[in-house]
Amino acid sequence: MITGLDEIKHALNKFSLDMTTVTDNAVRITAFDVLNIATQSIKEVSNSGRTVLRTKDGKRHTISKEGDAPNSDTGRLIDSIAVLHDKGSQVAEVGTNVTYGATLETTQNRPW
Predict the structure, then answer these.
(1) Is 99 strand, coil or helix?
(2) Nearest residue to 89 via CA among 32, 24, 31
């Protein structure tokens, strides 16, 4: 009888470990999906905003309207978007290390 109980405990522990792995993989995959959607939304140019002169050499940039993803100007934001995930943690973060990324998304309401 104890052998049977030990087998049940072992099977339940294995199931729990398997579910942790499955969940962690799902979190990681979802994070990369979010990264892909974010970068794609920035790449899709919104022509509905206003155009401004950006540099002394006459380069122009169209600022997306509020509520739309930001239009790419230099590509720096897109290049900086990354996934942080520690294997087994069941947690992932998608973000950027450029300071204006958060400003665009929150203060200026240009979600990416």
Answers:
(1) helix
(2) 24
> Which single residue is written with the structure tokens 């996934």?
83
Closest CA to 89 of 31, 43, 3: 31
- DSSP letter assigned to residue 81: -
| Whether residue 1 has pLDDT greater than 50 | no
User: What is the torsional sign of CA 77, 80, 85, 86?
Assistant: negative
Residue 108 carries which side chain, given as an amino acid letter?
A: Q
Local confidence band at 57 (pLDDT 50, 70, 90 cut-offs): confident
Q: Residue type at 31?
A: A
Tokens (6 digits) for 56? 């002394």
Q: pTM of the full predicted structure?
A: 0.78
3-class SS at 16? helix
